[in-house]
Amino acid sequence: MKCFLRSVDGKHGPIALPEGKGVTIGRGPETLITDRKCSKTQVELVANLESRAVRVTQLGANPCSVGEALLKKGESILMKEDQILFMVNGLHPYTVLFKEDSSKPAGDAGKIDKKSPKTTITAPPSISSKKTIVDFFGASTSKGHKRRVQDDNTLAGSSNKKPKYQDTKAEAGQEWDDSEEEEIARKLAHLQETAAKANSNPSQTSSNDERGVVCSKDSWEEHGKLLLFNKKGIQASSKIAGFDIDGTIITTKSGRVFPLNADDWKILYPEVPRKLKELLANGYKVIFITNQMGISRGKLQPEVFKAKVEAILDHLGIPVQVFVATGMGIYRKPVTGMWDHLCEKANDGIEVKKEDCLYVGDAAGRPANWAPDRKKKDFSCSDRLFALNIGIKFFTPEEFFLGWKKAAFNFPVFDPRNVNPSGQLYEPPSASLVSPSPEVVVAVGFPGAGKSTFFKEHLVPKGYDYANRDTLGSWQKCVAACEDALKKGKRIVIDNTNPDLESRSRYIDCARKAGLPARCFLFTATIEEAKHNNRFREMTCKGHVSVNDMVINSYRSKFVEPSTSEGFSEILKIHFVPIFKDPKLQALYQQFSE
Ligand SMILES: Nc1ncnc2c1ncn2[C@@H]1O[C@H](COP(=O)(O)OP(=O)(O)OP(=O)(O)O)[C@@H](O)[C@H]1O
Predict the structure, then answer these.
(1) How many degrees, rounded to 5, is the angle at CA 109 between CA 106 and CA 115?
(2) How far is the CA of 451 from the centre of ligand 1 (A)?
(3) 547 CB less than 6 Å from ligand 1?
(4) Does residue 524 have its Cβ closer than 6 Å to ligand 1?
(5) Pocket flag, ligand 1, residue 567 (CB < 6 Å)
(6) Interface predicted TM-score of the whole assembly (ipTM), two decimals
(7) Bridge partners for 250 per DSSP
(8) For the CA of 537, the nearest atom of ligand 1
(9) Which residues pair with 246 in a beta bridge?
């Protein structure tokens, strides 16, 4: 038995790790690593042939990682054959390989060809048949799979390499090229075996991760504004790796921001297919999660988009579950409706473990010039906020696929998690919310500032009449209602946005004519908070017409700070203090929305 360290990138040949002897590896001619973050003595490796494991000890200042574990200087971990060692910052991947001595007859492992600088190994019987892998990927023909693998090689800039897998005639014992994909294929084949067992006995799972049954056919589902694609071969898991599609998995061929047509796409980075396959091999279910508002706006035909999704998956050659939010509402990222659907209804009842999940997206709130050749700021922060709302790890495509360092980003001004239920409701605190005698209360505040909620909570139950232009139909009807209430000696609130002097003067005049006071209740919710509230109302209140940003911006441009000089006897500032009777609604409110 011998042990070798193998470069997953295929940058150099295998490095022998003699039994029990420390081998120091790092930046240098042996590994061809030039990355200065990697020390020349980055890690020490000690092979133990009996336990088929290698002890990895971190020596350099910047940590390496083995599987999920990040090693600080001086820390050690045992590395098994199914794990990947990244020398530094998720870069320079290595695996270890234990092989029977080539001088002995090959058992269930292969042999090292000492003559060739490149390692060739004999495929273990369990994975030597191409069909095994083809079945896992759900591809229809072996030819199709072979072509797909070649495509991936081309993407990875290694078109001079031979195809990774032999054709269907490949038998156990035949030699095949050593490459990064071979290791991944080994793991995939192992997973497939486990999956096959799980299919016959769904309660049985692999050692660490919970897995479900393997999906046997492609299917599209529709759940209101959610489209869901189950690709043949997907398998439920407690570990989820989620990806946005546009700008993360693909970009446009044309170079335009928006695709010119359904064929205007290409894989964003050559590293994408391999990284996704690696995740699958490590027991993740890979899902794509995309906002496609164009569908509900009638600009994108659902069938056209469905065909595009299928073409992307065929090109990648991997089983992926795809979630598409077709309009506004709970399914639209950053709100977590699509994730909730996955957890509650689309993961075979396997509980998703958030700590084992990650999400990658390009809408990350990065400012202009976030990297030397990246001038444009991100169009949004919705992907980062989506991961934050769920509570899982987030990466940009550059961080995840290319190993770039974390980029700076701008956080939204309004953070719904910070609304304070015990905050001060109004100012000045010495004022009285309710008057014992007839009066007019005139609201001023953004659409969505919380005016109606406040009045219905605090004034209407105390006997105030209520006038609102949305329900009555016009400001003239509100004025009539106001006159009528005052004539009857009643108190009334006017629940309109009333941003300017003109709109307010109508009600102040009514009060003046009746010889009664008019007070102003100025709602202090900011524009960002008001937009959030409007989106929350859209998700939770079916009857309300949605308020678009134009209406909100128009309020802002018309707004004139109310003053007693207009004729108000008093001006109260009303702050947004959340009241939630249902914890589910509170949780939804406290999610970032966009
Ligand atoms: N104090 C509060 N606590 C929790 N949610 C609130 C509160 N105030 C308002 N909301 C929510 O914010 C959304 C907008 O509130 P509301 O309809 O009261 O605003 P508005 O100022 O009356 O809007 P418009 O001017 O468009 O009628 C609603 O979904 C409401 O449930």
Answers:
(1) 70
(2) 6
(3) yes
(4) no
(5) no
(6) 0.98
(7) 246, 267
(8) 29
(9) 250
Ligand 1 in contact with 452 (CB < 6 A)?
yes
**CATH superfamily ID and name for 213-402:** HAD superfamily/HAD-like (3.40.50.1000)
447 lines ligand 1 (CB under 6 A): yes
CA distance linking residue 188 with residue 37, whole number of Å: 31
pLDDT along the chain (594 residues), means of 10: 88 90 92 88 94 93 86 90 86 88 48 34 30 30 32 30 30 39 62 52 48 87 97 95 98 92 93 95 96 95 95 96 96 98 96 97 96 92 98 97 95 93 95 97 98 97 96 96 97 98 98 98 97 95 84 97 98 96 94 94
Q: Which two structure tokens, joined as six digits, stand for 566?
A: 């207009």
Question: Atom 2 (ligand 1): residue with closest C-alpha?
Answer: 578
Q: Where are the domains of the chain?
A: 1-119, 123-204, 213-402, 426-589
pLDDT of residue 185: 63
Q: Per 3-state DSSP, what percentage of the chain is helix, strand, and coil (rounded to 5)?
A: 30, 20, 50
The predicted structure's pLDDT at residue 512: 97
| C-alpha span between 7 and 19 (Å, rounded) | 19
531 lines ligand 1 (CB under 6 A): no
Residue 164's identity, in one-letter code, is K
Q: Cα–chain-centroid distance for residue 452?
A: 34
Establish whether domains 1-119 and 426-589 are of one fold.
no
**In angstroms, what is the span from residue 171 Cα to ligand 1's centroid?**
68
CA of 258 to the centre of ligand 1 (A): 35
**Residue labelled with tokens 């796409």:** 265
Nearest CA among 445, 590, 425, 585 for reference residue 520: 445
426-589 falls under which CATH superfamily? P-loop containing nucleotide triphosphate hydrolases (3.40.50.300)
pLDDT reported for residue 87: 93
Omega before 334 cis (within 30°)? yes
Cβ density class 239-273: b for 16+ within 10 Å, e for less: bbbbbbbbbbbbbbeeeeeebeeeebbebbbbbbb
Tell how far the Cα of 533 is from the centroid of ligand 1, in angstroms.
6
Per-residue model confidence (pLDDT) at position 7 = 87
Q: Rounded to whole angstroms, how far apart are CA atoms 483 and 204?
A: 74
Give yes or no for residue 496 CB within 6 A of ligand 1.
no
